[in-house]
Specification:
The complex is a heterodimer of chains A (about 240) and B (about 250).
Chain A lengths: L1 H13 L9 H27 L4 H16 L2 H15 L5 H26 L3 H9 L4 H31 L11 H12 L3 H31 L1 H16 L1
Helix pairs in contact in A: 1-2, 1-8, 2-3, 2-5, 2-7, 2-8, 3-5, 4-5, 5-7, 6-7, 7-9, 8-9
Chain B lengths: L5 E12 L2 E12 L3 E5 L6 H8 L7 E6 L8 H10 E4 L11 H12 L4 H14 L15 H13 L5 E5 L7 H15 L4 E5 L3 H7 L2 E6 L2 E6 L1 H6 L4 H12 L1
The chains are: A mainly alpha (about 240), B alpha/beta (about 250).
């Protein structure tokens, strides 16, 4: 395994860059981090649609979420792969993957956020509205801060899924980490086991810290009294 | 009583939950500055009556006028109406992620566009009034039930509503905390706000209310001064209710 790493580490890290397209671990990292940054706002946006008081919008968004969740990710990927170039001329492969994982994870995350909202006592929303706050302000200042906090562990585990989903980029020929390793396997011919062991270790190294973070977050937020006090302390520190 | 302008008017209001009518053709006026206690057995529709005023519940027929007119149905109209009609809940509903101070300041900052300093000054004055000035930076979870309800009252008062509705404000409290909350409400009663209070605290009703409304099965059975209500109760339902509450 070491010889493979020693010889090919540059290719596995960045693909054929700068002579060819960027690839390898770097591409996977870029996809994952941009995906992570986009997925939460996407999930929030979809969720706001789901809980919109305007029925037709809520229905349409519900249908979207239902569709996203009922079709395999790879089918979405193939579909966007052919659709996106019609909308944006010469759309690069990484953009295709990014659009797909953002929409897909947005749809799933919207359900998580909605569950977080529905788990709050109904009185929270009623109290906010009774003060005269609009639906939007009630969500922004009262409901979402609580719902997102309660759902943080689930959101983190969704992030882990997202990182792994970037591997599907290999199906449409995007030179992210998985395809890079597959290419190397073709080149070397008889080193499949060490090569894919390395690939597994690489994904593990990316995802395991996030899993640990998820566990930490869960433990921390499982103790509401302590975290409530911490928040108050932060708030008063902020005001001072 | 009738010289004062009308604050809230129910005109033939009905509401049902499924097959179950909870308000049956209610018509009643509440006047500016009135302190009205609404009582009755559970399921009589008294909380629903209160909640329909600020449209926390919809009504099926009839009209509810606030300060002489029926608020419009646009979101802005409803929000504007709610700024003028405060609501205090049985379960306090403080926002647990905000400090006591921020609970009170949120709506004035957002809706009245008060500056940070103005909002905090107003909140501090209200906290002093409800006896909790020292708890401004506490989190709601650090307060007792009675203290939470007093903060909730301060939060409602921060919008300076001319009308305030209390929905069983002491029912979720341990007995030893009922007094401190009632004391705050009693103090407010003399200040000219229109107050409607759903409660089972009959001693408080007798002492503070200008008027007592007794409801049962979605109807108003009695509408009387405390004196009349407690000494010359006419209906059998109300007499039975009073006997039960007194023995509780």
């Amino acid at each position: 395994m070491w010889e493979i790493l020693e010889t090919y580490w540059v290719q596995l890290l960045i693909g054929y860059y700068p002579d060819g397209p960027l690839g390898g671990l770097a591409m996977t990292l870029i996809l994952a981090s941009v995906g992570l940054v986009l997925a939460l706002p996407a999930g929030l946006t979809v969720c706001l649609g789901l809980i919109s008081p305007w029925r037709p919008l809520a229905r349409a968004v519900e249908l979207f979420v239902f569709y996203m969740r009922s079709v395999p990710l790879i089918v979405h990927l193939l579909w966007i792969y052919f659709l996106l170039p019609l909308v944006i001329k010469g759309a690069p492969l990484w953009l295709v993957v990014l659009v797909v994982i953002t929409l897909f994870n947005g749809a799933y995350m919207s359900q998580t956020i909605r569950a977080g909202i529905e788990a709050l006592p109904k009185g929270q929303y009623e109290a906010a509205r009774s003060l005269g706050l609009s639906h939007g302000r009630a969500l922004r200042h009262v409901i979402l801060p609580q719902a997102l906090r309660n759902m943080l562990p689930s959101i983190v585990s969704q992030f882990v899924l997202l990182i792994k989903e970037t591997a599907l980029g290999s199906v449409i020929g995007l030179h992210e980490m998985t395809l890079e390793f597959m290419g190397l396997n073709d080149t070397l011919g008889d080193k499949a086991i060490p090569i894919f062991t390395l690939l597994g270790i690489a994904y593990f190294a990316l995802c395991y810290p996030l899993t640990l973070l998820g566990r930490y977050v869960e433990r921390r937020f499982a103790a509401p009294a302590r975290s409530a006090r911490a928040t108050t302390a932060e708030a008063s520190a902020g005001q001072a | 009583m009738s010289e004062k302008p009308k604050s809230i008017e129910f005109q033939d209001v009905s509401k049902r939950f499924g097959d179950n009518p909870v308000l049956k053709n209610i018509s009643i006026d509440f006047h500016q500055g009135d302190v009205v206690v609404i009582c009755g057995p559970s399921g009589s529709g008294k909380s629903t009556l209160l909640r329909t005023i600020t449209r926390l519940e919809t009504i099926d027929s009839g009209r509810i006028l606030i300060e002489g007119r029926e608020p419009g149905h646009s979101a802005q109209d409803v929000n504007a109406m709610r700024q003028r009609v405060g609501f205090v809940f049985q379960s306090f509903n403080l926002f647990p992620h905000l400090s006591v101070m921020d609970n009170i300041c949120l709506a004035p900052r957002q809706l009245l566009k008060l500056s940070d300093t103005e909002a905090r000054e107003r909140a501090m004055a209200l906290l002093t009034r409800v006896g909790l000035a020292s708890k401004a930076d506490a989190s709601p979870s650090q307060l007792s039930g009675g203290q939470q309800q007093r903060v909730a009252i301060a939060r409602t008062l921060a919008m300076q509503p001319p009308i305030i509705l209390f929905d069983e404000p002491t029912s979720a409290l341990d007995p030893e905390m009922v007094g401190e909350v009632l004391a705050v409400i009693r103090q407010l009663a003399g200040e000219g706000m229109t107050m409607l209070c759903v409660t089972h605290e009959m001693g408080f009703a007798r002492e503070v209310a200008d008027r007592i409304v007794f409801m049962a099965d979605g109807e108003i059975i009695e509408d009387a001064s405390p004196e009349q209500f407690f000494t010359a109760t006419r209906s059998a339902r109300a007499r039975a209710f009073l006997a039960e509450v007194r023995h509780a």
